[in-house]
Amino acid sequence: MNSFEGIIEFVAVAESQGFSAAAKQLGCSTSHVSRQVARLEQRLGSALFARTTRLVSLTSTGAAYYQQCKDLVVGLQQANEQVNQQQFYLNGTLRVSGAGTFVEQFVAPALMTFAQQHPGLNIDMDFNSRIVNFVEDGIDFAVRYGKLADSGLVARKLVDRPMMAAASPSYLQAHGTPTQPSHLHKHSCIISNNEHWLFEQGGITDSIKVSGRWRSNNAHTVVQACEQGLGIAYMPKSSFIRPIELGKLKPVLEPFWSKGASSWIVYQNRRFLPMRARLAIDYLLQHFADWQE
């Protein structure tokens, strides 16, 4: 059976392209990973990696061996999970990155309920929209909005986020209510992340360049500026739910709102996610399965 030692470490190094990154994924020391891979190479009588001071890459033998081993590792983890899911006890710290009103008002409360179901689990939420390094920053998964870059990360759609345009009653009384997207050229618009707003009519998308007195990448601040009468805002509908209910804001241009983008759960590699992260992701996907913006 000792011929199987080092395979998990080998697969981790192959997929993370480094011994240090693999060690962080596996929760062990770099020296342990290096030692296990070296012993595996010795038993096989062949070099699996070409090592330089800056780069670790698979040899032709290593690439062929990896193709055989990766499915073995997945199968082993799935077998373990089938047993453990009936008797798991989650502990440790789940680290999640996210930003925006949707994460604050909906994702965070859902994770609070998840935490209540697992008393031994700690949750550390980082409300930051910056691009994270999942290995270096120790992030299990992130919740991101909009079009995702092709980064090689795993992305699973959480919800679709249609848009809404809104303004305060005082602003509309003073400046009038636009009835066409083109009318926005004459209005003060509150800009969040993009000054080109997309509207739809009859299957045609129209891009309107807007300007205004207030710009912020914080959704709460945009809503507050909108409530104070500084202009018209255009964001996902969930950002405006409470102010609309309280009468502080009114929807405008409703026939032209675009379908918007989506919020995604993003993570590095399912194979090396700890059980607490896998179950949290599954919980969120189920929780938001029938969610409407």
UniProtKB/TrEMBL annotation:
<dbReference type="InterPro" id="IPR000847">
    <property type="entry name" value="LysR_HTH_N"/>
</dbReference>
<dbReference type="GO" id="GO:0003700">
    <property type="term" value="F:DNA-binding transcription factor activity"/>
</dbReference>
<dbReference type="Pfam" id="PF00126">
    <property type="entry name" value="HTH_1"/>
</dbReference>
<dbReference type="InterPro" id="IPR005119">
    <property type="entry name" value="LysR_subst-bd"/>
</dbReference>
<dbReference type="GO" id="GO:0043565">
    <property type="term" value="F:sequence-specific DNA binding"/>
</dbReference>
<comment type="similarity">
    <text>Belongs to the LysR transcriptional regulatory family.</text>
</comment>
<keyword id="KW-0804">Transcription</keyword>
<dbReference type="GO" id="GO:0006351">
    <property type="term" value="P:DNA-templated transcription"/>
</dbReference>
<feature type="domain" description="HTH lysR-type">
    <location>
        <begin position="10"/>
        <end position="59"/>
    </location>
</feature>
<dbReference type="InterPro" id="IPR058163">
    <property type="entry name" value="LysR-type_TF_proteobact-type"/>
</dbReference>
<keyword id="KW-0238">DNA-binding</keyword>
<dbReference type="InterPro" id="IPR036390">
    <property type="entry name" value="WH_DNA-bd_sf"/>
</dbReference>
<dbReference type="Pfam" id="PF03466">
    <property type="entry name" value="LysR_substrate"/>
</dbReference>
<protein>
    <submittedName>
        <fullName>LysR family transcriptional regulator</fullName>
    </submittedName>
</protein>
<keyword id="KW-0805">Transcription regulation</keyword>
<dbReference type="InterPro" id="IPR036388">
    <property type="entry name" value="WH-like_DNA-bd_sf"/>
</dbReference>
